[in-house]
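Would you kindly consider the sequence and fold I have copied below?
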Amino acid sequence: MNPNYGSQSMVAPLRRVLVRRPDEAFAVDEPHAWHYTARPNLHAAQAEHDALVALLRQAGAEVIFHDAPQPGRADAIFVHDPALVTDAGAIVLRMGKPLREGEETAMAARFESLGIPVLARLSGEARAEGGDLLWLDEQTLAVGLGFRTNQAGLQQLQAALAPLSVTCISVELPYFFGPDACLHLMSIISLVDHDLAVVYQPLLPVPFWQELTRRGIRMVECPESEFLHSMGTNVLALAPGVCLMLEGNPVTQARLAAVGCDVQTYRGNEISLKAEGGATCLTRPILRRQ
């Protein structure tokens, strides 16, 4: 097992993580083309991101910056999506959102510079984004099928992961607000401990809910208002039972605390609320290990 990479878990202690500080590309002049609610204020966004990075470091993670030029790619700050890091190297994905095409190449180059081998690359008609990929345990990857990840993407992921004895299970996502909105699998569920998840239950497909129940995963419910307006389900585990979420979700935060979680919050008016990306989206774990 390589000491510098490997992240087949959503909750093992976060040791190394990739982030991207907002730059001029993030402060888009046409926010609605990106499905942003308003034009981000770059200075405020950078201050919020700096504070987020400080929290990650306080939690014991080595923070690595992905600073290759990404002109015209506002969503490049959401480094979770272009790749998946396994114990055998990175799987370079293919973005389902057309405006994000090309992010994968830049991230693969950054991995190369860090000595992380590329295990596989999706090709052809395959599409998959990291927000649709959820490790239920080290040998089981749940794959959300929707507007960003397709059946061909699932098949190529399964082929790449089979030598690692990883099984992929498909989770069919709802239409919800349609193809322009960002509904990833991790929009409706985040694991915060090996047997604990934050969920927006009304959008959980019944077979997936049954699978979670079969596995003994307890579910903390996010209320509708916090799901719709402040990404209450987008929670990043820093370690088992220790998590980071967007401020302004008091009900979900209190429910997590009530079941024993240590909950930290960050301010994300610019980097999250305007741009549809929470703590998980802003981070690409490179190494998670006990």
